[in-house]
Amino acid sequence: VRSTTVGHNRDRIQGRGVGVSTQEAQGTLVGQDPTRANPRPSARTPLARSSPPLLRAICHVSALTLLARREMSASASLASRAVTANAPALVSRARMTRRVAAARAATVRAAIAEPPGSSASEVKNSEIQMFEGTKRLQTQVAEIGADTTCIRSLDWDRDRFDIEFGLDLGTTYNSYVIKGASKTALVDASHAKFEQLYIDTLKGVVDPASIDYIVCSHTEPDHSGLIGPILELAPNATVVGSKVCIQFLENLVQKPFKSRAVKGGDVVDLGGGHELRFIMAPNLHWPDTMFSFDPATKLMYTCDAFGSHYCTEDMFDTNLEAVLPHYRFYYECLMKPNARSVLTALRKCESDGANPLDNDFAGICNGHGPLLKFNVEELVGGYKKWSEDALEKAKAATTVFYTSDYGFSDRLSQSIARGLTKADVEVTMMDMNTEDTQELIEAVSKAAGIVLVVPPATGPAHDNLAAIIGNIKSKQKILIAESYGGNDEPVGPLASQFAGMGVEEVVPALKVKENPTEATYQLFEESGTDLGQVLTKKETLKAMKNAMSPDVAKALGRVSGGLYVVTAAQGTAKSAMIASWIAQASFEPLGFTVAIAKDRAIESLMQVGDKFVLNCLPEQGFEPLMKHFLIRFPPGADRFEGVEWAPASCGAPILKEAAAYMECTVMSRMEAADHWIVYSEVREGKVFKDEKTATHHRKVASYY
Predict the structure, then answer these.
(1) CA within 13 Å, CB half, 280
(2) Three-state DSSP class for residue 654
(3) Who wins on pLDDT, 129 or 221?
(4) Are 379 and 327 in contact (CB under 8 A)?
(5) What distance in Å separates the CA atoms of residue 400 and residue 535, rounded to the nearest whole number?
(6) What is the pLDDT of residues 440-463, one digit of tens each?
(7) More confident residue, 632 or 126
(8) pTM of whole model > 0.85?
(9) 343 and 388 in contact (C-beta within 8 Å)?
């Protein structure tokens, strides 16, 4: 049975992949949030707290259970594998790191780069303030190095980030104050919603009027939204950023200010050994991004890179197992589409004497989530390995053309890019606003697929559009989409022009008629995946045929499974897939695993902490439902049209014709070669029909 999914939540791509710890034999995967872990009872009473209806429901998860349990207990060697399959060196080092972190637990709030003779600085939290009545906001301050203070804005209840993807545990916005012997610098600011709270906190750290430099790592509003108000208090400050950054800020601030555009290798001397050295890191994940390295403290300020949307009072990465799922998820969402740029930035850091993997490197001061102190080698090494693997596995190349600082072009283009990476396609992001025309032309020539998120009808991006169109060839595949910027180049005439050139549109041009919702980002991501699957179809089929010998394929095909429909929902996005690779994995708490192909749409809705429903198909009369969900729907289509269902408490559909259902929470994920193994705990369940779950038998194992 082909496992066909339906729907995905815009920016919530792959992500949060985790590996196996020494807890594996007990059915617990690395990445499970320790705060959610249930205490394990005596082995003699494993089901004491489970209700009879729940037990009856989970009994329908019958296929492969015994075999899977034997295989899991026999695979103890997996315990020494990587935190993810793509980072085989992570866990072996991570165990040592966790022991070191445990030994440092008493000083977890100490500085990242304490000068000799200094003592640890305590973390100071502000009072919680409410935003829009229900959302908690708080600031946190601590000295993290010599003359260096971190101000974190804790957004406890933010449940989505600029709509693109949901947040399990909120996020933070991190900024830094460096007081040199002669000059003071503020590195990044905060989100506009924190304006008064942040400024009050900043005044407790430094007199804003004494700030000499405001370093803007990039201009996304969650980092630069308060630069305007801060300039009102620091009128003599010079804003430092990349050339593109300064251009964007001029449009954002809307009033004159002192500025200095820097390039790679430039230095701002603050005195006392604090010399901020700048490393250009475009496309991580905006075209204007740069890193700043202070050799006095061995700290590097990286803004979005090496961050995570994970709000916790722990200022540092003390608990690797808790941080890693959010860190990996963040990488998959924002950085994997720019894998080549990640590796380029790391090479620049190494050549400029700011290599995070050096033994004397103190820490990463990122823009979101915990700062990296205890696990720098593992987490930065993860970026490097994941990016190398993404490029090595890429079966085709695509260029995504977008327009920075215009409408929703950047965010919608990221959704398409994430969909492409799920299909093992290398993505190159090109900003039509800032890139050189010749570089745009070269990017066209290297790509099998072209994504064109249309620019405004006037301006530099539009001027570059003609050069891009003029160099597209008939053998290339194309995807056209609107930006919803108010002055978009019309997509209809563009589609007609490409049709006249013999260029194939993989899906009809994507149109946006209102501010994007989860369903909009779902549509764009699915369209990217569809384009990727078209580009990689030949290589994918070849790989499947060569994966195993015919005899092995026939033998493994004798492993049978049940038939299920997995459903999930987040906001306006809904998804489903037919599944047969499911097995019970634990007694207490009741849990099971499901294997999800990496390019399935529903994978985006099944991250750690997400909820979904497992519907068991009945032995009698399952065919209509199975056939319905095996249809290959176009992107954005309502897969539940014509199907009777009711929402579970999590919003995911419960199918009326199911034999039983279980409402589940994703606790952890393990990465396999082309699937994610998702371990989930069952929260609710009920049997509707007193009959067995349908079974699925295959002739060969190289297909579903």
Answers:
(1) 13
(2) strand
(3) 129
(4) yes
(5) 14
(6) 999 999 999 999 999 999 999 999
(7) 126
(8) no
(9) yes
